[in-house]
Amino acid sequence: MAVMGDPLDFCRNRLPELFTRTFASLEQRAQAGDEALRQRIRSMSAQPVGTRLRFTGEGGGEVGLSSHGRALRVVSEVPAFGYALELPIAAAAYGVDRFDGGQLEAEGVGRALGLLATEHARELFEKNSYCLDLTITAVPVLGDVRARIGLGRTDLDGPSEFTLEIEYDELEDAREQGMRPHQLFMAGKLKMDGDVAKAMLLGMTLAQLEQSP
Question: How far apart are CA 165 and CA 168, in angstroms?
Fold first, then answer.
C-alpha cells in the first residue's frame, strides 16, 4: 500500500479549517447539554498555544501553528509554550491517508487538541515540561516508527529526557478499549528507559489532565 498524503499541505492548508469546523461541532454538542464539554470549552487558554510539527526524511519540513481560542493559524514564530512533534514524513503521510480514509476520527482529534489548549493543561505543563522519544513497533506498512514529542515546550533540539516504547497492536487494543494515555503507564504497556521518574511524573500529569472538567 503506497502512502500518498502530503503532511505539509495538510498542516498548512487543511488543518486550520478542520480545527475550526471540529470546534464548531463540539460547541454544538456542548450547547445540546454536554456540560463537561461546555466547561472544557470555557477553560480554553486565553494565551496563544504553539505547536511545532517537524517531518524528517526526503521531502520533509516544518510547520508552526498557534491556537488562540477557537482559531488555529500557521505562523513563522511558534510560541514558546505549547507542544511539538517530530516524526518521519512517511509516517505522517500514512496518518493523512488514514484520516482521509475515515480511519481517524476528526472529533476525537479535536477533543484531544482542545484538552491540551486548556488553562489546566498550561498550568500542568508550565510546572513540568517534557521532551521524550516514543517508538511504536511493528506498525503496518511502516515498521518501527520513532517520534520525538514535546509537552509544554515547542523546542525539540535538545536531548530527550526519556524514551517510551509500545507495540502497535497494544496501542490499537488500548484505543479500542478506550484507555487513556495515563492508563497505559499504569497498565505497564509502555517500556521505559532514561529518566524513569520523569516518565512516571508524566503519567501522573496526564491523569490530572484527564480528570479536569
Answer: 10
